[in-house]
Amino acid sequence: MTREIRSWLSDMDGVLVHEGTALPGAADFVRALRDAGRPFLILTNNSIFTPRDLRARLSMSGIDVPEGAIWTSALATAQFLTDQMPGGSAYVIGEAGLTTALYEAGYTLTAAEPDFVVLGETRTYSFEAITQAIRLIQGGARFIATNPDVTGPSAEGDLPATGAVAAMIQAATRRQPYFVGKPNPMMIRSALNRIDAHSETTVMVGDRMDTDVVAGIEAGLRTFLVLSGSTKESDVARFPFRPNEIVDSIQDLVDRV
């Protein structure tokens, strides 16, 4: 039996936008959600930008998303740490999206005996900062990373991302990080809590089988795979799990809202 859809979670890159350009149907999809009064969140593993930054970037591409409807791996990480240790301290490698989220969660950002080392994405990873992180973890700080993505896109090609730098720190410390972002269903569950939604009546829309779809499945959501991003339909057979539905793009879901 097809479950009623009351709430929506959607990935951003590859679903709504591609390299800063809105994908067909993206603006109509978000507009339909808002007009119908559906609870929804736009999810991203990118921890560089604040929700305000992302709202502005989406607006420039013609997609009107409220700041409060954007949920990043940085916000999910800040929520996770607050649940684990309210008012704790962290040494952070990352940019404004991550430092702002932790600061607003009541965390002290410090290199002096922090409770956690938190690794996020940044455009310029500093060898000095990585060395500091290694020594703090060796000294007892717990190792958290916003997401496991090993590369990120740029106009010149792939850049090393959080997962790649985390692997280097793990090799040096022999301490495995805890990744909060997708495919960890923790990020999906925190998003559900954010909009007071239930997994039984929420869907996850994404363009990647190995992050969006598997995270949605493990969190108990119905999943839609769109073929407008990184996954081709022929790729699906390589995975031991399946989305509930495969559609060409977000345009095909506008009338489903």
From TrEMBL:
| Key words of the record | Carbohydrate metabolism, Hydrolase, Magnesium, Metal-binding
Residues at which substrate binds: K182
Binding, Mg(2+) = D11, D13, D207
Q: Which is a Pfam family this sequence falls into?
A: Hydrolase_like
Catalytic site residues? D11, D13
Does RNA-binding appear among the keywords? no
Q: Which SUPFAM superfamilies match?
A: HAD-like (SSF56784)
**Record GO cellular component, one term:** cytoplasm
Q: Name one GO molecular function term.
A: metal ion binding
Q: Which cofactor is recorded for it? A: Mg(2+)
User: What does the record note about the cofactor?
Assistant: Divalent metal ions. Mg(2+) is the most effective.
Annotated CDD domains: HAD_Pase_UmpH-like (cd07530)
Q: Which domain of life is it from?
A: Bacteria
Q: Which family does it belong to?
A: Belongs to the HAD-like hydrolase superfamily.
Protein name, please?
Haloacid dehalogenase
User: What is the source species?
Assistant: Cellulomonas chitinilytica
Source lineage: Bacteria, Bacillati, Actinomycetota, Actinomycetes, Micrococcales
